[in-house]
Amino acid sequence: MNSLRRWETLLFVLLLAVVSLNATESRYYLGVGNFINLFQLSIEKSIVALMMAFVIIGAEIDLSVASVMGLAACVMAYTFQQGAPLPLAILLALAAGVLAGLNNAFWIAYVGLPSLAVTLAGLIGYRGLARILVEDRAIGGFPLWFNALGQQGLIGPLTLSIMIFVILFVFFAVLLHASAFGRLVYVVGSNVEAARYSGVRVARVKTALFAGSACVSALAGVLYAARLGSVRGDMAEGFELDVITTVLLGGVSIFGGKGNMVGVGLSLLLILNLRNGMGLADITGNTQNYVIGGLLILSVLVPNIYQDIQNKWKGRER
Amino acid sequence: MARVNWLRRHVRPEQLRELSLLALIVVAVMFFGSMIEGYYSFRTFNRIASSVAIIGVVAVGQTLVVLTRNIDLSVGSIAGFTAFFVGTLIANHNGVNPLLAVAISIAIGGALGVVNGVLVAWGRVPAVVVTLGTLAIYRGVLVDLSGAKTVTTDSLPQWLVDLPRLNIAPVGDLDVRPLFVVAVVIVILFQFGMGYLSFARRFYAIGSNPEAAQLIGLPLKRVVFIAFVVSGALAGLAGFMTLARFGNITVEAGRGLELNVVAAVVVGGVNIFGGSGRVTGAMLGAIMIGTLEQSLFRLGVSEFWRDALLGLLILLAVASDAVILKRLNRIWARTELKRIDSLAERAP
Amino acid sequence: MTAAAELDSPILDIRGVAKRFDATQALDDVSLALLPGEIHALLGENGAGKSTLIKIITGVHQPDRGQMWLNGVRVSIASAADAQRMGVAAIYQEPLLFPDLNVAENIFICHRDRGAVVDWSTIFRDAEAILAKLGVALDVRSPARGLTLAAQQSVEIAKAISMDVRVLIMDEPTASLSAHEAEELFRLVRDLKRQGVAILFVSHRLEEVFALADKITVFRDGRLISTHPRAETTPSRAIADMVGRQIDLSRRRATSARLEPLLSVTDLGRRGVFEGVTFDLRRGEVLGFAGLIGAGRTDVGLALFGIEPATSGTIRLRGEAIKVRSPQEGMRLGIAYVSEDRRQLGLVLPMSIFANVTLPALRRYRNRCGLMRTSLERRTAETFRTRLAIRTPSVDLAVAKLSGGNQQKVMLSKWLNTNPSILILDEPTRGVDIGSKAEVHAIIAELAAEGIGVIVISSDLPEVLALSDRVLVMREGRQMAILDGDDADPETVMNAAMGQTSAKPLGWPA
Amino acid sequence: MSKLLMGVAAAALLTLLPQVATADDGMATPGKDVSMVLLPKFLGILPFDQAHKGAEEAAQELKNPAKLQFLGPTPQNSVAGQIEIVTNATTQGVKAILLSNNSGDQIVPAAKAAQAKGIKVVTWDSPIPSSEGEDVFVAQVDFGDIGKVMADMTLNLTGPEGGEFAILSASPDAANQNAWIAAMKVALKDAKYAKLKLDDIVYGNDESEKSYTQAQALLDKYPKIKVIMAPTSVGIVAAAKALQDEKLCDKVKISGLGLPSEMLAYTKNGCAPEFALWSFVDLGYLAYTTAYQLATGTLEAKEGAKFKAGRMGEFTITKDPTRAKGLRVLMGPFTIYNKDNVEAAAK
To answer: Is the CB of D217 less than 8 angstroms away from the CB of B297?
Structure first.
């Protein structure tokens, strides 16, 4: 408990440091427009990260999120191109996402396979399906209202995606921390056997986790398509790295059962500001990628080292 | 009954698993052969062989890592990193001794593997986290250090450019190409090594029962560390093979290799929970993937069916390990018990 | 092997060893000498310090203070590998085999001197030779996966022998063995003894200890209380030393008036696990399940609760035939199962007391929007805290921070909160201190008096006898007997549990 | 109707033109502080590096005190990366963005936002297909001409009897590639090329491994194929290597757009007897000069505007005939390389 709170404090201090560094280093940083951009440029990943937090707290992992994003976008584009009205195409895309999630859930929750292997298969397989649909083409030419939803502010400068993100963040925070479902996710993540012996329908909880994760990813995929105005088979490739990093950096334990939405929110802000700051300092996306990769490792390594030191210290105290 | 017993005594469930994969490959080849004109040709063989070579070598290292209940997702980045830097080195110093170049490749790969190994074994960071991180880091460092350059064939010495089409032992039209030979040698070496070296048996022990390994004092951390170093070193070698095969190396070389390799290992029957699986199985997995990769597009269907099928194959492989193999093991154990019982009865 | 002259000087001499973990003094100034050709038994309740001592001897832990002398030389055992090199080996309750390695490899896994290359034909031959010496028939080429527990223990012993062991530590090696298998094991142990090996034998079964040991040492609260040659002590004295006082678990008198059966079980079975279980459970009755570990008692409990559903037989609840296919169904029918393994199966350790208490009945604490009513949860937890005297500063505390006895009470609260009509308690006092044990017993009696039908599964025979109205005895997945009230004396129960009719079990308090 | 309107508008522009031209005469004013971002499709291949060199050369000549930022995404992240870089550059308030567009029209919202803040968006190498959000496109050569040249080179290699060929392109969203392929298809309608048959178009995504295997795949799938046309510098070398490794250089030929230094060996051994290219150094130089003049106000992005681009001489902004809308500066001819001139160019 204590160490958790300490982690969030650390994140907060880091966030303050990054914000003040950015503010002194770049005079363009503090501005409404930049803050909107900062969110908007990674908004889809942020949305997916919210649900990924649930999955990892439930002691599972979903590597297929980025491929599901791509699959949903491609299903939408393909059916639209085949003549379906766009709202219908969007519904089909979301349905495809849910199906993908249910497929993951079936193998994990009912057959009992490790989620790492199943979602790795999903990472490869769903991407394959997406590319079968659109092959090497780029499909665009969506109605203007659709592109506008992705690109322009809906209320003031706030875009639809940002508003969806904010609503989902509040919703998921309540769901995780105050609802019965959230309680069950923690229970399953902490001790799945105890959950089973307490009459918890573990398979159902896991199904909800993976279906939810895929559904949110599909939504994010559609939003991504709206923001870019066109769809390609390789859309969102590699996003899973950023999403998982965000969640782990937020203090969610890779072994499940630990973590909270405040931490995830702080880690999101930290990563977004860090990326934005580096972007404004003309550091390319590539460098940003490996800084994020380093953060991912450090977010687990540092608490480990801290624990070691603490143990040693205790040993000496004796 | 007698036949079951014969089977039981001579074939282990794991070998049965490999045999069925082999059968699946034969079926796939026959299917493609019936659908595609001129499929049974040496060209097809060469094509599959050279695409299998690189995946196969890395899959051998990945097998060791997976045996210890870990995973190495950074192999693609390691291979790319090595291919690029050794490529640059050779481009700048055309006189570099070929063997030295190979040694440097292995050393670079091994060094990157050391980082993974230290973080996993001593830093106690889960392998997925470490290697997902180094996947990004190694690639990122490569792009930054490369200064936006490309290694191109024209800057490489002739021996390297000619390497992939060199024919070691011409058997009629059949070309036996060096890359494939390297892969086969590595597989044979490791197959025997894993079977006969005392140290290698510890990989199985540790993946089989890590708690017990700890209690009886097996060097758990060292073994995990070495698994990552070997995986890195072989990925480095694969980097050199990539350089030789493609000649032109951009900073993107080897991207996505890790997915193929993990797929090969899992399809090849190496248990994702560690402890069981063989190098030959991983190689068969690589051959299955290579066959799909090199054949599907000739059917006239989208090349991307390969990925969809690959996802399905992984699922089926893991599911069959979890469900069918467990049952087979139980049957095997039961017949064993019966045998002991009857022995005990005979000798009171 | 060992010269007679050396017989008096200890192989392993432990002098003044102490070890502390955080707040607990796990071992305090313990001195112990193991002589060659001697079986030295170690007794003590859970947490008395036995396992800490074993871990220090095998190099898993380092002592804070004290010395160890091996064959008259002072040694420090820094790792498990060190211990092996010095000829110190341990066999645990759960065999530590590698399921994917074959039998021969398992036997020789600790050998570091067999060269870098495995010579399979030699290793198979050597393994066969060792097993033949032990009189065990096993295929040395087959993997350890799928061997019975007894066979696995044989492999463990073969492993110890192969290393030319001088000190063998056996930590509850018979806990999972059938009587016949245990007898086989003892034969091997006596063989080793004849060869001059010093054996440290840890067991909870007094009858084994008194049948086997030459010397008996009792631990309590990390201290060595007494060491006696077997001839100079008695089981009741040993128990007194273990608990610190003479205990009197007075017999619960069976209430005479019997109502109609609450639960009727006929010929219940689960394929390959247990079969032919038939009994009635009445309201207000405590039915004891006795038997050795692994006799299938827990499996019957799991089948009744629905975690591992039965595959044959019928269950009737208040006369109506029911099927229990999942824990949810079990709970709906008013059945509760309190698991034997608190830490793994019973509690969610990092979570608060109240969250654990309300977990099975989560639905009742949800408002219409699906949000948790935590104040109501806290109130429930407070009720149980008072009722069962759970000692904790707050119900918000993580369960992990409670003592074993209080954790057990949280488990009870959790299931009482589902208002069960049938309560299945699996090893309700395992790892619980003696004071809490009495409290738990009182609670069980109280619950029965309230009309709940209680099934108590326990390996602690005095406990079963003291608590139960009737005792059901199981052995190797079969029901051996149901003993009514006064018929249930220790001898009868043990005879039924061990499948013997003649041999009187040794060492039970008279 | 719209044509008429455009005609009127063009006429109106023409009348305005002399005034603009006289205002500053299309001559650059050196020494002005103009911050610029040079944004290639992605980092890591030679042509873009050459363009960077050319741009730096121009920057020195113009004595621009502001450092030129050379920022690019990684290939796998090209679209999102380009959008991010354009957006950040907009926030930073640079004066001009030099973009080789790899994002199709996906870049439009970001580019428009940049223009709204007064930033000049000059595309080079690859334009924005709809030309929205773009001030002017600095075209290396006329895209229609490339189509014709590609058709000619193919016919040269197959000989008059014609035959089957395939195209190995970069990414499906690269506007320049798509325009060239489209132009080639138009050119193929001419009776002269009636015997050429286009089998397939495949994409190597500017990754050499993917391009290599795609080239192999073409050889397997179309046994009668005679030419692989690869209008991308990464694809053409990879395909040439594949052909060489397959020992098929005597039956199948490679052609397309490539760098002489990288193609030297293949031209000499006959795998790729003929290919074309322009100077990326010049392209970078011209793009920089154009953007500098637009940003300093000595040039306006209007049809007919003339300007001097240092060592490269005078250029005129015209309508882009290869797109529905949009303006372009046409750099000038490309060179066709063969065994006679490739060695000299490779140095």
So the answer is: yes
